[in-house]
């Protein structure tokens, strides 16, 4: 007995409309006209003998039968798409597409990437940066490095670096007109803040028992952590640094930690990849290299309890 199989092109169009909730968006994704989408939906409804969508003035909605059908065939299309992408990647040797936070990419990943390229000259890595949550269903990304609590449904998450923070500054501030030696001395120095990490100073000061210093009258805010750290290097004030990302600056003495207390916050950097049956070989190689580099990162004893 032959399988009951509807015409595949109308079925593909139905899946797109059902997933996107719009004839217009489906047409844009499939690079066809809206009228072509409408014709294909009419064909699949005629073939099945049922009404799959309710046409309304504001758009379309799935009927109960249409919703049930979409629930059954949607995962199959997602699996076909993932399998095709994996095959193309493995056979064509395509680039490894990695998305990361800008600070992590600039301060940690890019500094180590030459080692990976030297060990694997045949593999191409493409790095993009963004702070928005990753959506593997919509974005053509193999791996993502995200900052948060590890809760990303639909993704496989692996913890990379803890968020350990401490004040950092240029060495000159320790011996300037107002030497930075005690927490009380912070009142005489400008505090540097990153727009996306505004709670760093209050969190650290609360953890060391001096929350009132968070009301510091002289401060400067920057649009990114990278600019904030550069301001600290240039002697503009004292920043809160993510210690794991500033290892080279601290080793070279470009930045110093004026105080011993390192505070561990509840968040971390995570490596995310989509849930799938198999991972392309080149992506597996990059993932294993990244995790090996993380394991080789020296751990720093925290002098302060975690938040």
Automatic annotation (TrEMBL):
MF term (GO), any: DNA-binding transcription factor activity
Keyword Repressor appears in the UniProt entry: no
Domain of life: Bacteria
UniProt keyword terms in alphabetical order: DNA-binding, Transcription, Transcription regulation
One record GO biological process: DNA-templated transcription
SUPFAM superfamilies linked: Periplasmic binding protein-like II, Winged helix' DNA-binding domain
Annotated ranges, domain HTH lysR-type: 6-63
InterPro entries reported in the protein's UniProt record: LysR-type_TF_proteobact-type, LysR_HTH_N, LysR_subst-bd, WH-like_DNA-bd_sf, WH_DNA-bd_sf
Family the UniProt entry places it in: Belongs to the LysR transcriptional regulatory family.
UniProt name for this protein: Transcriptional regulator GcvA
Organism in which the protein naturally occurs: Noviherbaspirillum sedimenti
Gene designation per UniProt: gcvA
């Amino acid at each position: 007995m032959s399988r009951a199989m509807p015409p595949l092109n109308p079925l593909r169009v139905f899946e797109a409309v059902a997933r996107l909730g719009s004839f217009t968006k489906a047409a844009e994704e499939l690079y066809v006209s809206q009228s072509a989408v409408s014709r294909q939906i009419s064909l699949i409804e005629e073939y099945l003998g049922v009404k799959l969508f309710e046409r309304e003035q504001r758009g379309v909605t799935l009927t109960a039968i249409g919703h049930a059908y979409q629930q059954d065939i949607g995962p199959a299309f997602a699996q076909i798409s993932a399998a095709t992408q994996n095959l193309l990647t493995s056979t064509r040797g395509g680039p490894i597409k990695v998305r990361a936070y800008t600070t992590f990419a600039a301060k940690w990943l890019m500094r180590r990437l030459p080692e990976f390229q030297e060990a694997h000259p045949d593999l191409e890595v493409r790095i993009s940066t963004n702070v928005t949550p990753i959506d593997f269903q919509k974005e053509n990304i193999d791996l993502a490095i995200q900052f948060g609590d590890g809760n990303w449904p639909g993704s496989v998450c692996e913890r990379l670096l803890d968020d350990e923070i401490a004040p950092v500054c240029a060495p000159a501030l320790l011996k300037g007109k107002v030497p930075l030696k005690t927490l009380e001395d912070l009142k005489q120095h400008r505090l540097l803040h990153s727009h996306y990490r505004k709670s760093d100073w209050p969190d650290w000061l609360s953890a060391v028992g001096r929350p009132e210093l968070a009301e510091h009258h002289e401060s400067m805010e920057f649009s990114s952590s990278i600019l904030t750290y550069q301001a600290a290097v240039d002697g503009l004030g004292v920043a809160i640094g993510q210690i794991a990302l500033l290892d080279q600056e601290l080793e070279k003495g470009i930045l110093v930690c004026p105080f011993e207390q390192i505070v561990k916050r509840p968040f971390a950097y995570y490596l995310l990849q989509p849930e799938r049956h198999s991972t392309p070989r080149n992506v597996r190689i990059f993932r294993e290299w990244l995790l090996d580099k993380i394991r080789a990162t020296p751990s720093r004893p925290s002098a302060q309890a975690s938040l």
